[in-house]
Amino acid sequence: MTTTALAITERRPGLLGWLSDQFWRHPGMFVLLLLTPPLLWLGIVYIGSLLALLFQSFFAIDEFSGIVDYSTLTLKSYAELLRPANLDIIVRTVVMSALVTLASAVIAFPIAYMAARYVRGKWKALFYLGIMLPLWSSYLVKIYAWKLILAKEGILTWVFESLHIGFVLDGILAIPVIGGNSLSVSYIGTFLVFVYVWMPFMILPIQASLERVPVNLIDASSDLGATPQQTFRKVIFPLALPGIIAGSIFTFSLTLGDYIIPQIIGSSRLFIGQAVYAQQGTAGNIPLAAAFTVVPIVIMGLYLWMAKRQGAFDAL
Amino acid sequence: MTAAVSLQGVSRHFGIIKAMDEVNLEIASGEFFAMLGPSGSGKTTCLRVIAGFEQPTHGHIEIFGENATGVPPYRRNVNTVFQDYALFPHLNVLDNVAYSLMLKKAPRAERHKAAEAALDMVKLAGYGTRRPSELSGGQRQRVALARALVNRPKVLLLDEPLGALDLKLRESMQEELKSLQKALGITFIFVTHDQGEALSMADRVAVFSGGRVMQVGTPEEIYSKPNSRFVADFVGSSNILNPDQVSTLTGERRWGSLRSEAVRLAPEAGSALAGTVTTKNYLGATTRLGIDIGGGSIHALVPSGQELPDIGARTGVAFERSALHLMETEQ
Ligand SMILES: Nc1ncnc2c1ncn2[C@@H]1O[C@H](COP(=O)(O)OP(=O)(O)O)[C@@H](O)[C@H]1O
Ligand SMILES: [Mg+2]
Q1: What ipTM goes with this model?
Q2: Residue A297 lies inside a defined structural domain of this protein
């Protein structure tokens, strides 16, 4: 006896068989099913808590009892932000974030470029490992390690002195405002550690965007008469810009919100994160803490809007 | 007159792969020159060496009499139309075309005018504000052409420019390219793996195989007087006769090629070659018959309307002695 193959095979048995046929017929249903949990998460837990935060900032606090008055909405907390002491904190944080972002981009770009253009095979795996490895160890351990490196009796001082260039370090530390007694208690130290800690978040997006630039665009540019420098400015950089922006969103917002690094390494002058921590903790001023938290959100919004207007996402 | 491009013993090796091996070519100024060969035969590498993206491992290149060995691409007045167009995705069509003028710091109005004119030349006037991603394959092709021509290069290199287009579009582009080349008088070097395209468009053709140039000549020479079995086989549906068969016909022990359209059917008796009909393909104007003559088969193109033998029937074949071309090389 010969078995004849059917032109159409039977449905797989059970609910799964029925479901896969249904999903094939109605692909929209499948997408909906996939999207519902993340949308619920985003809508309720994430956006919801952001809105709750925003609301908190519009309540007033009784200065004597420290009790929050939920009955009336006011802009008092925002007025509070504009007091010189608080404005200082905001400016300090924004300037630090901008400098950290700039430095990260400048350092990350050549590394990402090398990795995207020239590194192949197992060396590429090694590159990823090298970039990611620091992320595997605890953030706190790394920061304390840096404190030891940067301390007055630390390795860096020792290295400078062994090379008989201790005066360079002293010179740097003597710079007003950003200098200090040692690197570990100066803005320079805070800056160095920020740059170190966020570096992977800058390298990876830039590398991903460079990876997507086809080599023949570079050939085409040079064919049409562009020197390597012109090709970089007119083709490679614009096409890598979305990656740089993505990386800078990470470094900028992470620096804006961080409260641990400046507390451990730096000159005890507050950053936004620390101010939030202090206001909601010891001071118990939730509305002001909330208002402080809104600042980075607004700044990031402005930043993205400007980046978009500059055409940073045109190559996406 | 100095050649537009002169390759003297040029090789390009990638490790043990000889992508180009001892290539000698003289391409005349104003010529429409085709490089024909199967995939992997080294055509693209040859083009890249002329453009300057690859440096030869050995040999010497001159462009209009000037030494081009070691000269970077951006200093060569040679432009390329890339196989996959390589349009800049972050620039609109007009800025893509004006790119080379922008690099030369031409004033904005002037370079836009020149770019508009170039777009007009490839029948894409008014498309300047679009993004490359908003164009069809054929339109991208034209933008790439306009971009390469806006600067009036001395030599234009085209790497399988029509490969991705459908048949109708390809035919009309072939004619346009040809008339564009005539009008501009620029030397075109055109890479293709399509022998029909090479023969119909080019003034001269170089046939590539395994990194070597097998034969250079006019389309007629390549088609009717192939110098090797490879060329005879690749360039058209030619019949190849082995030395035994050729010696029974001519007394000379050489490989021979015989064009299918020169083969006639004849009564078996009195024919030097005869065999059994094995295949029959109706092609419209003609029918192609495969005839097994023992030790190989011969194809004959028989004009439609003529009476045809059935498959399995025996028939004789005849042809003019002049139609049989004896090849120089042993292979
Ligand atoms: N950059 C390269 N590295 C290694 N091998 C290459 C490279 N470019 C081309 N080749 C090899 O050289 C040969 C010729 O390639 P190519 O010039 O692209 O042929 P064609 O254009 O005729 O198809 C092929 O075997 C190809 O694999
Ligand atoms: Mg090729």
Answers
A1: 0.84
A2: yes
